[in-house]
Write a structure and sequence with these properties.
Layout (H helix, E strand, L loop, with lengths): L1 E6 L3 H13 L4 E5 L8 H15 L2 E5 L2 H7 L3 E4 L4 H11 L4 E6 L15 E4 L37 E2 L5
Parallel strand pairs: 1-2, 1-7, 2-3, 3-4, 4-5, 5-6
């Protein structure tokens, strides 16, 4: 299953991009709010949660455990975190939502508490962004694959994500 990371600097842009991904068959959206004003987060989550529910698509939030627990989205992805952060996120989420994490090196994988997570994204060692991306967006990198076993919470077949656009 393809996971599409939706980012943007305003609600309209995020919703429009997410809708394009859904119309093109994507059934797993991950929302990156790093550039979105705080006041626009809740309306975007509510809107996209309705769209995803109507299509039986998964909706996950990036680095926002509290909002994910409150809105009952499908899951959360942590871009950085210690093993303690992962365990804390699982406690706050409960057992139902899936939880993933990005690691920057395969050497980090043994330290991640596997009972608390559903997938691991391995950060690429090179940029997957085109050279024309502005310096404010360079911090975002697309993970390459998920080298963990399938969990009951993770969407079936979730194995790969990347910097594709709809």
């Amino acid at each position: 299953m393809l996971q599409y990371i939706v980012g943007g600097s305003n609600a309209h842009e995020m919703i429009e991009t997410a809708q394009q991904a859904l119309e093109n068959g994507c059934r797993w959206l991950r929302l990156d709010f790093s550039l979105l004003p705080q006041s626009e987060i809740e309306p975007v989550v509510k809107d996209l949660q309705e769209r995803c529910n109507s299509l039986e698509a998964f909706l996950s939030l990036e680095d926002d455990v509290d909002n994910a627990a409150a809105t009952k989205v499908s899951g959360v992805h942590l871009n950085v975190g210690s093993p303690a952060d992962v365990i804390d996120a699982r406690k706050r989420l409960g057992e139902e939502p899936f939880l993933g994490i990005t690691v920057s090196s395969a050497a980090d994988v043994p330290f991640i508490p596997r009972s608390a997570i559903d997938y691991i994204a391995l950060q690429p060692c090179h940029s997957t962004l085109p050279p024309y991306v502005n310096r404010h967006q360079r911090h975002r990198r697309a993970p390459q694959h998920y080298p963990t076993s399938q969990s009951k919470r993770t969407p079936q077949g979730a194995k790969h994500t990347g910097g594709a656009t709809p």
